[in-house]
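Morning, I've got a small favour to ask if you have a moment. You're getting the sequence in one-letter code plus the fold written as tokens. Thanks so much in advance, here it is:

===
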Amino acid sequence: MSNKLIKNQIELRKNELLHYAPTSFFRKNSEKSFEYFVKNDILSKTDGGSEIYSVDIEDHTYNFFYEFLEWDSEFFKIPTLKLTYILFGETNYANLLKAISAFKENVVKSNYIFIEIPSEDIFVIQALNESMFRLVETRMTYYLDLNKFTNNRYAVREAQESDIINLKKVSSEMVNPFDRFHADVCLDPVIADSFLGVFAEESVKGFADYVMVPNEEGVPADSFLTAKYYQSWWDNIDLKVSKMVLSAVSSKTNQGWYVKLISEMAYHLREQGAEFALMHPASTNKAVIHSYEKLGCKLGKVSHILTYKLR
């Protein structure tokens, strides 16, 4: 595949592709974020790091970048693909529909595929919707300025492997019906419940950089919050940003602990050197969003998760 063609397509789509970077809303760093998270990623995939489907529609080439997710496929008992980018050199809606149709017929077939796409890429979103890609979640990115953050302190500790059984139970029981795994009609809700439990377990075992639980006398560890530091990003984007990833809080025994864990994780991430923390609530989770805004978090970006499965 011609690197020149791909670079030209990246340039044509740059205004939309900028928003695929997880830190695109930090304007002073947006160009570096685009180069690191998007442009370099696409070019590395062009060199053999990913699967690419190319199709010519009326003398214009459309490139679909996708990955086969082995772990997800085995866990959910369904062959799973992730669509990462669609590149093209024209803005012809009818041709884009034809290209998506060819991609579905020749690559997706009877498999399950999903894409997380920023709301700014509305041209592609419309084409995917018309091509029977379903909206299963609208996901928001909030951010917190850690250097300006102040709040009360609470007793917490790092989760241990002895906590896993309990945290798996809490994670599987305190389900958000609007998250991607439970909202998607293509996925088994029972498997989705167990997925969150496994995610919590693997986080404690090392998938996350830190898992926090309550450490207050008389309060059971029936809630947790995980974080990834992403320190490998910092020099490349000239921004020290980390993420709060997965949480679950028992409404029976740990009421009020969500805000406490977010607050303490903010202090923990600042101690690791981070300047900003990112969180990714579903737009439907109004209580969580209210908690973020109460703590001083601000909205950074909005994206949609679309999925397709031949039915």
